[in-house]
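Late entry, written up from scratch paper. The run itself happened at the end of the previous shift, but nothing got recorded in the book at the time, so transcribing now.
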Amino acid sequence: MTPAAAAGDVFVVPERPLFELRHEAYPGMWVRVRPAELGPWLELCSLIGSALDADRKAQLEPEDGAALARLFEMFSDHLEAWNLHRVADGVHVPIPLTDVHTLDASFALDVVTAWFDMSAAARATAPAPDMPQEPIEE
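Output as recorded:
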């Protein structure tokens, strides 16, 4: 047990911020989403490469479909709100995104890629913590 834990010091991990994504290719659209936690973000780093590669292929492989499905599932888990309505019937696209298959593939990949970029940027722009290092006497 560390001295800090023994002394009862507790640090509460801050809540992940809520971001609003907007995409210049889709004027008026907004998506409110939280950045991925570290574990999912590491998985995202692998999946986003697979998804972008799959998007550029003429023929998808079975593993491409699994990677894309997982990527959209992870996005849906972090999605808080959006203003998406289907053109055909004007119905709001529900959250959680259980029927991702109803979205246009390029549009969905644009939104998910923007979320990944936002998650990476949130980490890069976070202020460096002030963490002085002091030796601990045991």
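Helices lie at 3-7, 38-56, 62-78, 105-125.
(Scratch paper discarded after transcription.)
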